[in-house]
Amino acid sequence: MGAGFRQWMHYLTPSDAHRRLGLVCLGVGHQEGHLPTVGPRTMRNHVAVVVTEGKGWFRHGAGPLLEVAAPAVLWLFPGVPHHYAPYDPGWTEWFVDFTGPAVAAYQGLGFLDPAAPVTPLTTADLPVQAIGRIARACRLGSPYLEVETSAIVHDVLVALRRCRADEHPGGEPVLARLARDACLPLSVTEHARRLGMPPAELRQVVRRLTGSSPKDYLLTVRLNRAKDLLATSGLPVAAVARRVGYDDAAYFTRIFTRRVGLPPSEFRAQHYRGLTLN
User: Fold this and answer.
1) CATH number at 171-271
2) DSSP result, 152-199
3) pLDDT digits over 162-196, tens only?
């Protein structure tokens, strides 16, 4: 409790064994009111500060002063100085501290970007719900607390990505339509034409949402469907290949083996869940 503001926070000290999970929670908190200015300071871990009400300012490194208006997330990066505060009469924030080698993968996939340290959100409901689950777990306590809270950090990052205001407004429908038509014999240019957008825009949307190219996304959808068929049907491999868009079964087998790490026949032998094969 502070003069003019309220706060609650809890910090965790994951062991080396917990850190091998790849992403660990280091702390969580909730503050509201006329909060004191933060920084300038530099941290050794990442922090997501979700501002749900109010306005303020934020400075990241040597960059300009950025305006903050709820709902928004402030990203604090390790080794980068930051400095921020709400305007009168204050703001409401939820935060989660986290670290681990998996953060680099999330950054590479565009979930957090040092070039966009202040990210407007369409709503803060989903990320706040996830951060609230971490807070509840900390209040209740558990011998598995570090594992449980670290697992929820993944949910926080996904929720923040889903709620970003700068996402392509038709992004998810674009992916849904690509997935629907993935097994048709179409080039990326033809997919773009069917979607009514230039190929360059399609590449940008898919890269932003999935971290991959349209070609790689289409391949992933095809292979996922092939796996489903191999695991649940008695169709020969050649028939599975045709179902997912490959007339050449040998070519399909090479692609499947290169991407999955084992040929279709071995995948079926390990994962088949249909009726007994003769």
Assistant:
1) 1.10.10.60
2) HHHHHHHHHHHTBTTS-TTHHHHHHHHHHTTTSS--HHHHHHHHTS-H
3) 898 866 555 568 888 899 999 999 999 999 999 89
